[in-house]
């Protein structure tokens, strides 16, 4: 899914002059999500937690890939973090790892997904559970859909 973020030429010029002001940590991501973060909370995972969830990003856990990077199947274990408010545990998840394109545009696309999908809640849409915004890692964590994508079911 791609979400276009359009800016006026004036806004683009201002960003060029001021430099990139994209978030570099979970607190800044939540600030950008604004008031929505209370209604639709997302979990900020650490990269170390994602290594546990995906068994260190094992290749036999790869569900698919694309221009963005690989998607891994993982499980959020009961003992991952004290006070984690997810039920039931262990919870199967799909972990979408951004391909390392840390360009301004790549980061904006990742952020658009966090903000947009973090606002949505519908029975026919995959739920965004959380994200990782640590160092150069940009990762999205979705609920796992055992029957695959709509595209796979329609065209296979």
Automatic annotation (TrEMBL):
<keyword id="KW-0067">ATP-binding</keyword>
<keyword id="KW-0472">Membrane</keyword>
<dbReference type="GO" id="GO:0005886">
    <property type="term" value="C:plasma membrane"/>
</dbReference>
<feature type="compositionally biased region" description="Basic and acidic residues">
    <location>
        <begin position="8"/>
        <end position="20"/>
    </location>
</feature>
<keyword id="KW-0808">Transferase</keyword>
<feature type="binding site">
    <location>
        <position position="96"/>
    </location>
    <ligand>
        <name>ATP</name>
    </ligand>
</feature>
<dbReference type="GO" id="GO:0004674">
    <property type="term" value="F:protein serine/threonine kinase activity"/>
</dbReference>
<dbReference type="InterPro" id="IPR050823">
    <property type="entry name" value="Plant_Ser_Thr_Prot_Kinase"/>
</dbReference>
<dbReference type="Pfam" id="PF07714">
    <property type="entry name" value="PK_Tyr_Ser-Thr"/>
</dbReference>
<protein>
    <recommendedName>
        <fullName>non-specific serine/threonine protein kinase</fullName>
        <ecNumber>2.7.11.1</ecNumber>
    </recommendedName>
</protein>
<keyword id="KW-0418">Kinase</keyword>
<dbReference type="InterPro" id="IPR000719">
    <property type="entry name" value="Prot_kinase_dom"/>
</dbReference>
<keyword id="KW-0547">Nucleotide-binding</keyword>
<dbReference type="InterPro" id="IPR001245">
    <property type="entry name" value="Ser-Thr/Tyr_kinase_cat_dom"/>
</dbReference>
<dbReference type="InterPro" id="IPR011009">
    <property type="entry name" value="Kinase-like_dom_sf"/>
</dbReference>
<keyword id="KW-1003">Cell membrane</keyword>
<dbReference type="GO" id="GO:0005524">
    <property type="term" value="F:ATP binding"/>
</dbReference>
<feature type="region of interest" description="Disordered">
    <location>
        <begin position="1"/>
        <end position="35"/>
    </location>
</feature>
<feature type="domain" description="Protein kinase">
    <location>
        <begin position="57"/>
        <end position="156"/>
    </location>
</feature>
<dbReference type="InterPro" id="IPR017441">
    <property type="entry name" value="Protein_kinase_ATP_BS"/>
</dbReference>
């Amino acid at each position: 899914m791609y979400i276009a973020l359009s800016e006026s030429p004036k806004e683009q010029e201002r960003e060029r002059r001021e430099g990139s002001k994209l978030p570099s940590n979970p607190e800044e991501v939540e600030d950008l999500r604004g008031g929505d973060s209370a209604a639709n909370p997302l979990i900020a995972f650490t990269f170390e937690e994602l290594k546990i969830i995906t068994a260190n990003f094992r290749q036999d856990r790869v569900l698919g890939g694309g221009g963005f990077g690989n998607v891994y199947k993982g499980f959020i274990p009961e003992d991952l973090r004290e006070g984690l408010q997810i039920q039931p545990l262990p919870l199967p998840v799909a972990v979408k790892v951004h391909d390392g394109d840390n360009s301004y545009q790549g980061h904006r696309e990742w952020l658009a997904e966090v903000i947009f999908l973090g606002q949505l809640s519908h029975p026919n849409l995959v739920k965004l559970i959380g994200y990782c915004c640590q160092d150069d890692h940009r990762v999205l964590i979705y609920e796992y859909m055992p029957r695959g994508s709509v595209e796979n079911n329609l065209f296979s």
